[in-house]
Specification:
Blueprint: H1 3-9, H2 14-25, H3 28-44, H4 46-49, H5 55-73, H6 78-81, H7 97-112, H8 115-126, H9 131-138, H10 142-164
Helix pairs in contact: 2-3, 2-5, 3-5, 5-9, 7-10, 8-10
């Protein structure tokens, strides 16, 4: 794989990797460092990955495995990389009490979801991964992933409606 092809096919994926890596590692600085290391690792093996049938999924899998290795080597405090605390990155304009409350409620709902539903929802809705990439990582069929995502979103909506629409119609 030549330099230009590597830039177009691999490095262009780094922006799509960032949400997943940042969520897993718990900080933006760690995520940026990890993505650089992942790109170096992929560059060193560019000859082997040149003809991979599903290069984006391979890149996501490599990034995921790299993050898991980092977490195992140096286990940070749990709240730094836990999906619960990194669910929604708080933007400065969203630092209101209402936003924090909504974020907290969604985090709680996600924690109560079955593990596969939670993982699929995080990969699709927070990390922006495609169904085929999720299928490659989870070893599930795309139609099963769609069902899991539908059920997860449905459960989140039901729980949020219970929380924010209580008492309506009781008047």
């Amino acid at each position: 794989m030549k330099t230009e092809e590597f830039k177009n096919r691999v490095i262009s994926m780094s922006e799509r990797l960032y949400p997943m890596v940042a969520r897993m590692l718990g900080s933006h600085a760690n995520a940026e460092d990890a993505i650089q290391e992942i790109m170096i690792k992929l560059w060193e093996h560019r000859g082997q990955i040149k003809n991979h049938p599903n290069l984006p999924a391979f890149i996501f899998l490599t990034a995921r495995n790299y993050c898991l290795d980092l977490i195992k080597k140096k286990k940070p405090p749990e709240d730094q990389y836990d999906a619960k605390t990194q669910l929604l990155a708080s933007e400065p304009e969203h630092d209101t009490y209402e936003w924090q409350e909504l974020k907290h409620n969604i985090e709680g709902i996600l924690e109560r979801l079955p593990e596969q539903q939670k993982a699929v929802m995080i990969m699709r809705d927070l990390d922006g991964m495609e169904f085929i990439e999720i299928a490659e990582l989870t070893k599930l069929r795309v139609d099963h992933i769609r069902v899991l995502l539908f059920r997860a979103r449905q459960q989140v909506a039901i729980e949020l409606q219970k929380t924010y629409c209580y008492g309506k119609g009781d008047i």
